[in-house]
Amino acid sequence: MLGLVLAAAAATPNYAEPAAWLCRPGRADACAADQSATVIAADGTRTVEGFAPAASAKVDCFYVYPTVSMDAGDNSELSADAEERSVALVQAARFGSVCRLFAPLYRQVTLTALRRAMMSGAPRPQAALDLAYADVKAAWERYLAADNGGRGVVIVGHSQGAGMLKRLLAEEIEGKSAANRLVSALLIGHNVLVPAGKDVGGELKATPLCRQPGQTGCVISYVSFRADSPPPERALFGRAPNGMQVACTNPADLAGSAAVATRPYFLTRGMGERATPFGPWTRDSAAVATPFVTLPNIVSARCVSDPSGSYLAVSTTPAANDARSGTIGGDVTIGGVVLKDWGLHLIDMNLAMGDLVALVGRQSAAWPAR
């Protein structure tokens, strides 16, 4: 078995080849897809918000996608299938308004392997995780050598992608010259452990949590749950060993602890068969023609640390006379049953996508001074 793993690891993807990348600047790829959104106000008024990538972005974004592959093995094939393209559309493309986008394909641990592990009660195979990480590391090294050119870079990942980038940050960025390039790290939908009540330490020894909008060289991280359905005892996210807690930084208000409105962007057609459905967006059930929809001042969030864990507590709060339904889906389901231990994992990033993009914009402006 070890010989097979080593042989597979030796065949590292060639990231000098454009085909090894899901997204690169200047290409008509998954990160160049239409991001136009219908803005629906409380009175039902609709406006279309256009989207254009930055003509001369000051920084780069290095994005690693979450567990999406339906390939049969423990590790995915190195191909941009519909799953990879779809998640880049939903999670990465909007950052193109503030940064150049780089997203490597990598041999991630598949959904198939994750389901096998969940059914057997066994952890995901470490050899498969190591192989996936080796790809991400190789892509990062190629990006630094051939594409970075001294620019600031934001690393962005969700779920498995965030786990890969957490390891990359700990092993290849902290304490090395690359740390001077780090604008911020968006490690979303993954447990990033810090000492209880602290902003630095734990799994990352030198990189603090972001607490001010213009702060750079820091981490934005959270796992999201509905406020009325906090992490249960066996939750996959939000719970930490004694003396530690899962990092929570609210992108809508880094320094605060009160519930504040977020700027969500939801895919109009929903988040797929594993998610509870969205909508109708308005009480009259009128269709939305754009790929995305955003609902100002209907989603609010705050970081909570209590006996249930440390997490971003999400509420939907339409007023009594609001023309919008306030029906926000996105819970993980199997056979129609909501898996409460996953929280709102599928839409972690979408719940505050506008806030995340705005933060990266402010951090990009502040980074040259640092």
Our measurement of the CA-to-CA distance between the termini, rounded to an integer number of angstroms, reads 47 Å
Quantity of strands, as a count: 18
Anisotropy-based shape: globular
The number of helical runs is 6
> Into which percent range does the helicity of residues fall?
10-25%
Low-confidence stretches: 1-10
As a whole number of angstroms, the C-alpha radius of gyration is 20 Å
What summary fits the major beta sheet? 6 strands, mixed
H/E topology pattern? HEEEEHEHHEHEEEEEEEEEEEEH
Structure classification: alpha/beta
Percentage of residues in DSSP E strands: 15-25%
Mean pLDDT: 93
Strand order, largest beta sheet = 1-5-4-6-7-9
